[in-house]
Each structure stands twice: as C-alpha cells, then as structure tokens.
Write a structure and sequence with these properties.
The chain has 114 residues and is α+β, with helices and mostly antiparallel strands. The chain has helices at 5-12, 59-72, 99-111; strands at residues 20-25, 31-36, 51-55.
C-alpha cells in the first residue's frame, strides 16, 4: 500500500533517537565525529547500516548538541570545550537538530519544483 501524506506527517512527531554518535579528538589537535545507524544487537543485525565521518569545525555544534542532551538527561559532569577546530577540507555541513530539522525540511519542500 502507498504511504500517504498523513502517514509521513505523523512520522514528524515520532520522537526516537536511533543514531549513534562518537565524538573524539583525532590525536592531532582536531576532532572527529562518526554518526551512524549501526545496531549491533541481534534484532537489528540483519539491517543495513550507514555512517558518516565528520571532521573540522562542524564537530563543535555536534558536540554542544550532544552535551545539551546529556545535561537534559541528568549528566552533571564537566568538560572543557575547544573554542576552535581547524578546517580539514572544502566540504559543507549544516548541523540541524529538533525544531531546526522541521524548518529545514519545510524550506526544502517549499523550494522544490515540479
């Protein structure tokens, strides 16, 4: 059966976090982030998984976002954040979370041409 617009719209309200994030220093005064979908447990092992590796300044908003989630979840530890991270290439990345995802999605839909 085809999936209707209403079904897709209800998915926007589905609150689940299935991404796996690893943020670490790269050993050379930089940072690296891996965002993936890997689920190593048996129930998900048959599904395909993807990941993206991010280096450079885009790692900072990702780290800040993850720390906000950790604090919201009750973590009260301390961590000194780097103020800058050197660029590592000419790629582009825009970090969007929560309400920003909806805004970005609607902007893309509004700008789509038939």
């Amino acid at each position: 059966d085809p999936i209707g617009f209403g079904d897709w719209a209800r998915l926007l309200n589905f609150k689940a976090n299935h991404r796996k994030v690893i943020i670490a220093d790269d050993g050379r005064d930089g940072m690296v982030t891996i965002v993936g979908s890997a689920n190593p447990h048996d129930a998900s092992s048959a599904h395909s998984n993807v990941a993206v590796k991010i280096t450079g300044p885009s790692t900072l908003p990702l780290l800040q976002s993850e720390l906000e989630v950790a604090r919201f979840s009750g973590w009260s530890g301390g961590l000194s954040l780097p103020t800058t991270v050197a660029p590592t290439g000419d790629g582009r990345l825009k970090v969007v979370t929560e309400g920003g995802i909806l805004k970005e999605l609607l902007a893309r839909i509004d700008s789509a041409q038939r």
